[in-house]
Amino acid sequence: MAAAQYGPHRWSAGEYDSDHTDAFRGARFTVAELDRRHPERVQLRGMRTADDHRAMWNTIERLWSDAVTRAERLPEAARHQRVHDEWSFVETLRHLVFVTDRIGLNGLVLKRRTG
């Protein structure tokens, strides 16, 4: 069977051959490397029980505590600085507090309307 050509992609008898195949292999390597460096990613994907969720919450609190400790060593202006149009550290914390309070506590726990 002849291969069908669609741009840089080649389809032949159900097989797919392109640069995307190598990109997928690269993505798997990237995921594996990130998981090695940050085992909490594996913990997050493995949550199944209430105990798993409690343990993950403890991990998240530890990670944010570490991040806040590092940020406190920065000059005040640096904590408010945006990089590449992303939120500053202070804006990120403000957003997380808002979401946790507004949506999490009021919306899910207390069943209040948040709109």
Shape: extended
Percent of residues in helices comes to 55-70%
List low-pLDDT spans. Answer: 1-18
How many beta strands in the DSSP annotation?
3
How far apart lie the N and C ends? 58 Å
Structural class: mainly alpha
Element pattern in H and E:
EEEHHHHH
Strand content: 5-15%
The value of Rg in angstroms is 22 Å
Tally of individual helices: 5
Query: What value does the average pLDDT take?
Result: 79
Provide the spatial order of strands within the biggest beta sheet.
1-2-3
Largest sheet at a glance?
3 strands, antiparallel
Please specify the SSE layout and strand pairing.
Layout: E1 4-6, E2 9-12, E3 15-17, H1 19-37, H2 40-45, H3 50-72, H4 76-79, H5 89-109
Antiparallel strand pairs: 1-2, 2-3
